[in-house]
């Protein structure tokens, strides 16, 4: 399977995993640092609001949106667990964690994925390069195969817009 077909297949699989979770009462939890934090909030906005069509709001939470929670956890426990603590508080079996990291090696993201895997939250990685540790830990990985961070970020936006459209179309069925 060529890289393009693998990415397409994994995007379709990820969309279906998220749709299935929503239909069973689960939610999408999203995390990332820096530009990936902005992407997490963008994805949540597209799903809670709307992407292209009118539909009911979908349960998506960006773990990057609450500065009080982020700074309290970072201050009290260290930045490496800012997303892990939130997954512990909000995640339940059947939910989905979309973990975004251009390098695939962001410690705070990896810690969240490790806990999510332990508690039955399905993990999906959106990463770049060769995927890093994140691609090894997540149940499903979508990798933008570039070593250039801006190119990875641009690819991620295209990928998550496709993902949002597939979710929106699939959930409405």
Automatic annotation (TrEMBL):
| Role according to the record | Catalyzes the isomerization of sedoheptulose 7-phosphate in D-glycero-D-manno-heptose 7-phosphate.
Annotated binding of Zn(2+), by residue: 42, 46, 153, 161
Q: What species was this sequence derived from?
A: Candidatus Taenaricola geysiri
Q: What GO molecular function annotations does the UniProt record carry, in alphabetical order?
A: carbohydrate derivative binding; D-sedoheptulose 7-phosphate isomerase activity; zinc ion binding
Question: Beyond the main fields, what else does the record say?
Answer: The reaction produces a racemic mixture of D-glycero-alpha-D-manno-heptose 7-phosphate and D-glycero-beta-D-manno-heptose 7-phosphate.
Which Gene3D superfamilies does this entry report, sorted A to Z? Glucose-6-phosphate isomerase like protein, domain 1
Q: Which reaction does it catalyse?
A: 2 D-sedoheptulose 7-phosphate = D-glycero-alpha-D-manno-heptose 7-phosphate + D-glycero-beta-D-manno-heptose 7-phosphate
Keywords, comma-separated and alphabetical:
Carbohydrate metabolism, Cytoplasm, Isomerase, Metal-binding, Zinc
EC id = 5.3.1.28
Name one process (GO BP) from the record: D-glycero-D-manno-heptose 7-phosphate biosynthetic process
The record ties this protein, via Pfam families, to:
SIS_2
Q: Where in the cell is it found?
A: Cytoplasm
Question: Which annotated residues bind substrate?
Answer: 33-35, 46, 75-76, 101-103, 153
Cytoplasm listed as a keyword: yes
**Cofactor(s) for this UniProt protein:** Zn(2+)
Please state every residue range assigned to the domain named SIS.
18-173
- In the UniProt record, the gene name given for this protein reads gmhA
Identification of the protein by name: Phosphoheptose isomerase
Note on cofactor: Binds 1 zinc ion per subunit.
Q: In which pathway does it act?
A: Carbohydrate biosynthesis; D-glycero-D-manno-heptose 7-phosphate biosynthesis; D-glycero-alpha-D-manno-heptose 7-phosphate and D-glycero-beta-D-manno-heptose 7-phosphate from sedoheptulose 7-phosphate: step 1/1
């Amino acid at each position: 399977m060529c890289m393009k077909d693998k990415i397409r297949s994994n995007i379709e699989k990820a969309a279906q995993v998220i749709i299935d979770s929503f239909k069973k009462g689960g939610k999408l939890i999203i995390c990332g640092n820096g530009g990936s934090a902005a992407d997490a909030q963008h994805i949540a906005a597209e799903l809670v609001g709307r992407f292209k069509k009118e539909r009911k709001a979908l349960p998506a939470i960006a773990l990057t949106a609450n500065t009080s929670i982020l700074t309290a956890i970072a201050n009290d426990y260290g930045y490496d667990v800012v997303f892990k603590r939130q997954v512990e508080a909000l995640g339940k079996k059947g939910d989905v964690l979309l973990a975004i990291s251009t390098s695939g090696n962001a410690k705070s993201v990896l810690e969240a994925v490790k806990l999510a895997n332990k508690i039955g939250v399905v993990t999906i990685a959106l990463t770049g390069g060769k995927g890093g540790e994140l691609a090894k830990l997540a149940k499903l990985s979508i990798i933008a195969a570039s070593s250039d961070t801006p190119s990875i970020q641009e690819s991620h936006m295209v990928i998550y817009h496709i993902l949002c459209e597939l979710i929106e179309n699939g959930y409405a069925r």
